[in-house]
Every structure is written in structure tokens, then in C-alpha cells.
Amino acid sequence: MNILVINCGSSSLKYQLINSETEGVLAKGLCERIGIDGMLTYQPEGGEKEKSEIAMPTHTEAINAVLAALTNEKSGVIKSLSEVGAVGHRVVHGGEKFTSSCLINDESMKAIEECNDLAPLHNPANLIGIRACQELMPGVPMVAVFDTAFHQTMPDVAYTYGIPYEYYEKYKVRRYGFHGTSHSYVSKRTAEIVGKPYDQMKIIVCHLGNGASISAVNCGKSVDTSMGLTPLEGLVMGTRSGDLDPAIIDFVGKKEGLSLDEMNEVLNKKSGMLGISGVSSDGRDLEAAAETGNKRAQLALDVFDYRVIKYIGAYAAAMNGVDAIAFTAGIGENNIKMRKDVCSSLTYLGVKLDEEKNNVRGEERIISADDSKVQVLLVPTNEELAIARETLALVK
Ligand code: AMP
Q: Pfam families of this UniProt entry (predicted)?
């Protein structure tokens, strides 16, 4: 069966068409500038990347453009839309309602809508993408795969904040965690690569990209994760602050004359490695700047690494041990020095990195020494494949 995987943002949309038997990607691409003008990127398997300007006043035109490209006589990969067996949609927030992926119907749409409050920037866009697909592909089964679902196994001690309990009761303020599809996929792959039963391992997954989070996966269940009610908590990210003293919001807001909304914008878009360095949110730019002696760029990289080291220590404590640590996502997969620096602070856990094995980018492999007590791995994440698998499991 061919499964169309859709990851819909407010003005962009990523897609992949995956053959569920071979798990190969038949075509993939991106729609950008939806609601502004519109740009489609389309790349068929083994073919050249094509870019075309197509008017996309709404997500419906964007998805229409994707479907037209997939069925195009020249470079299309399927003859007609009847060859799309199902659609898997990434949905950011499933609140406490969704502990796993679900088939999309009127009832689940309503329940997803009820989570909009918890992710006002993401969930409404995800719903628009679902509705546009329903309009253009009536009768094709669709599945919602939630970023939060994998972390719903967290115990109350891990998800409860130290604030009046009534805020949880009234507004569901608690830790939810994100990147769940990636943490689930990478932790399972880690167990497979190491060759031990998933339900008997203590794994720490470091998903380090522009958005970054760490999770503790004990016996196949997420027991803690660094992102919280929203993706702002935890690690220092590209432009997000991660953990900070909440009093800073009031203190800086008053000094700078910024409203709560404006402070929220500062913490989400102008903080993190961008805020510290004043150079860039991108790890590559920071490495280049640090090499030319830019001290703040170096500080941003050091602060990033330090926070990762602290969270790994915290999660080893939360699970009373750790068998494997996996690095994934843009920085986790590609930044050799970051992995080396982080691991050099984990010798107390019995981590011993093999520098030669670590000298690699984006390749699935064990990078710790043979006599390392804790196995360290590089596991490229594949959220689209994970969404396609979940979708297949529900529509079969
Ligand atoms: P993601 O959000 O997973 O796409 O990751 C984006 C981050 O990965 C950015 O900070 C990039 O600088 C970093 N990244 C991607 N490719 C590389 C690379 N080859 N070397 C170092 N960092 C990289």
C-alpha cells in the first residue's frame, strides 16, 4: 500500500509517499509560502528535485499541487490517486486524550480540536491539512499520529509541575513532551541494533535538532522527557530558551516594557543559541563562527552541550541506570564534536566513546568502544517512516 505522510505547518507542508511493503520513499517534497504565494518542491525517487511556483492561497491548493505532482504523467510516481491507500498526518498535540495514534473520523477530529488550546500555533494547522486531504481524497482512510502520544506513559511524578494542582485539574497544565514519534522510533531501533529486548532496556534518546528534547525510555515506555506543556522547556535550542527561572519573564518584561505575548515571542524565537551567540540559531554557523574565535558562538555551543550532559545525568538517575544513549536529529546525527564533548563528561556512567566510530555523520551505528559499559549510538531518525508504519497498522 502507498501511504501519503503529511506534516502540515501554518504556512508550509512536508510530504512523503511511502510504499509500505518496501518502506521505500517513492517521492517527497515540500510546499512553502502557503497563504502568501506558493512554492512546490517535488522529488521522485532517484530523480531530480523540481521546484515550481504554484498559487497556494490555502492548504487545499497546496495539497492539490502535491497530488498533481505525484500523478503527473512525466515525473509522477503513481498513475492515479486510487494508488494512495491511506494518509498519515502528524499532529503535534494530543493532550491527555490520545495515548496512541488514531483513525480520523468526526469524533477524533473534535477531540483533536479540543487540544488546540494546548498548541495554538500547531494543532489548527494540522487540522487544516487533514480537512484539505479529506476534501481532495474522500473515502481514503486517514490516521493522526501525535507528537505527544509516546510520552503519555510518563508517571505523575514526572509530569506534575510544582504549581497549584488546580491548574492541572482546570486547564490540564502538565508535562506532555514532544518529538514522541522520533523518541519511539529511535529507542526501538536502538534496542534492535544492540540486540536486546526493548522491554528490558533503559535508553536515553537525545533528539538534538533545531528543536531539541531528551527522553528516558524504560522498558519500552517513556518515563520522562525534557519538553513540557509546550516545546519551550528543557534543552537550549536553536531559538528557544529551554529551562529558565520563571521570574525572568516578569523581570525582563518590566525592564524592557514587553508584554507577556512579546516575552513569549522572545523565549521562542530570539533565545537559545541564537540569543546567546547573536550569530545564528544554526549549529553549523556557530561552529564556523567559533572557529574564527567568536567567543559568544563558542559559549552558545558549550551551553547547549552542558544542558545535554545535565539531562542525561538526570535521566540516568530517573531510571536508576542506563544501558544505551542514542543521538539523533540534525545536530545529534552530524555534530561529531558535540557527541565527543558530551560523552567525555559521562565517564562516571561507564561511557567510553570510540573516536573513530564516532567520526561519522548520519549513519546508523554504535559509536561507543567495545568495552563501554553503556552503549552509545547514532540512529538517524525517520519520523515519516514511523508515521507510515503507524498508519498502516491502523488501516490494515
Ligand atoms: P533538524 O531540526 O533536525 O533539521 O536539525 C537542524 C540542526 O542540525 C541545525 O542546527 C544544523 O546546524 C544541524 N546540522 C545539520 N546538518 C549538519 C551538519 N552536517 N553538521 C553539523 N550540524 C548540522
A: Acetate_kinase (PF00871)
264 assigned binding-site residue: no
Q: Which residues are 11's β-sheet partners?
A: none
Which active-site residues does the annotation give?
147
pLDDT digit string, tens, across residues 101-152: 999 999 999 999 999 988 888 899 999 999 999 999 999 999 999 999 999 9
Do the beta carbons of residue 22 and residue 43 sit within 8 Å?
no
Domain ranges of the chain: 2-146, 195-383
Of ligand 1's listed atoms, the one at least distance from the Cα of 287 is 21
Q: Give tens-digit pLDDT for 149-191.
A: 999 999 999 999 999 999 999 999 999 999 999 999 999 999 9
Residue 251 to residue 141: CA distance in whole angstroms: 50
Give helix then strand counts, H and E, for the chain.
15, 14
How much distance in Å is there from the Cα of 210 to the middle of ligand 1? 7
CATH 3.30.420.40 is held by the domain 195-383 = yes
Task: Assess whether the region 2-146 and the region 195-383 belong to the same CATH fold.
Answer: yes
pTM more than 0.90? yes
Tell me yes or no: is domain 2-146 CATH 3.30.420.40.
yes
Q: Rg for the chain (alpha carbons), in Å?
A: 21
Under a CB-based contact definition with an 8 Å cutoff, are residues 278 and 289 in contact? no
Q: Is 355 annotated as a binding residue?
A: no
